[in-house]
Amino acid sequence: MNIIEMPERHYVAVRRTITMTTFGLVADRLQEIFGWLAAKGVAMDGAPFFRFHVIDMAGELDVEAGIPVAVPVEPEGDFVAGTVPAGRYATVTRVGHPDRLLAVIEELRATPGLDFDMTDEADGEHWAARLEIYHTNPAEQPDMSKWEIELQFRLRDPA
User: What is the assigned CATH class of domain 2-154?
Assistant: First the structure.
């Protein structure tokens, strides 16, 4: 686990309210975003990611499937433009199937001294920025057990 300082980052995404069993409704849209950016001549500026806004593992999740871009882009249709806030992030990178991330997330969440930028509310955990970044291209490595995935969880600004 590392603590890193990250600048503000722009992205284009699809945002959905889903459950753990319907995650594909947002995840499967990444290829569509890639194609749209290519058609617009907009270059990616990093690896695709999932941004979790609200998490209730037993209920619903408010999630974006996004692709970083160097400059803000005017969205179309159900694509949204967003910004990941600058700040300090607790980060960990692992290689393995995405279904195996829960233990890594729990370990990161249990790290002493980390004050995550999130609040517990009636509908779940509300996060300022909680990202799963997928550094492996599935077209080049279809074996999901070999995917490199980075978690970045924003830490609360010091008082």
Answer: alpha beta
